Amino acid sequence: MLLSLSNEPRDYAWGSTSLLADLEGRESTGVAEAEVWFGDHAGDPADVAGGSTLDAVTGGTLPYLLKLLAAADPLSIQVHPTITQARDGWDKERDLAADDPARNYRDANHKPELIVALSDRFEALGGLRPVAGTLRLLDALGASSGVRALRSRLECGSDEDALRDAVGWLLSGDAQREVDEIIAALAGASSDEFDAELEAVRAIAGRYPGDPGVVVALLMNYLVLGRGEAIFLRAGLLHAYISGLGVEIMAASDNVLRGGLTPKHIDVPELLSVLDTTPAQVPVLAPAADAVTDYPIEVPDFALRRVVLEGTPLSMEVSGPAMVLSTGGEVSVTGADGVALAVPVGTAAFAIDETSVLLSGVGEAFIAQPGS
Questions:
Q1: Is 258 annotated as catalytic?
Q2: Of 2.120.10.30, 2.60.120.10, 2.60.40.420, 2.30.30.40, which CATH number belongs to 292-369?
Q3: Which residues form the signal peptide (predicted)?
């Protein structure tokens, strides 16, 4: 059985007024459109054609949340908990109201996530750079007292300990003078090795002047994805999307610990308790040369497959409750009953109990399902 899913875009301030409209071939509303949720999460369950919502169909048991994400401005620097951390945090905050701004945990689930670029250029920050690289980047910022103070913290102890100390210090509220000096030094900075990073962080500083998260961004890896490329962000990994359009899938959770570039609540001790400061580059996952790309991740909550259709129908095995999200062209999906369901761009088909689906048309689609 196949159901048609849609949803209204969420109007977060960082959203784009054009990216989703252009994808769907409609006029812009002039309002920021940031995310479209295709899932049964209580925060915004998808609409089912005919008047219901997906949570009424599934009972809220879907293990993943699929989204379209459109960023014109940087999202908050953030990290997500492991499932143990989420359960402990949810229990610790059980007496807080659901809408309490001091609440860190919206549910008791972890939130690993994968994002695939739909735009030709998708910018992100992902993970913490090894300290030696960041010290070379700081060489481009001169020798103000703020730069010297950050350098001295990064040079003490192991990379993991030094990065934890530096992030905590920058976000503590006690380092604003140093933060301001470091941000000021960005204006004239140049580096053959780190020019792209400096340009990106200068742009972030223009959007969030004086925000300590700007300097935290200097500690992070800068990534630029092309269409079809993806990054997987495990629990504990500091990250922020900067700009672009993508398909995002994650465990069914809305747990976010923020670390800057936001007016929302930042709980520094809780952030540090969740943060994994092991420095490493985040691998970029490339699309396959043929029609079907499976992104190699190993989580039980979700799996994602990209399918490029060129007129020849393709039969795809699916397991568990699956979604087919259309992101380009004309796509239809046929289930076991033999009835083809047209899936307009920006909407999805939900397969409740199918073991395979037939995709037809000329376009692009993403198949989401539980992982292995």
A1: yes
A2: 2.60.120.10
A3: none
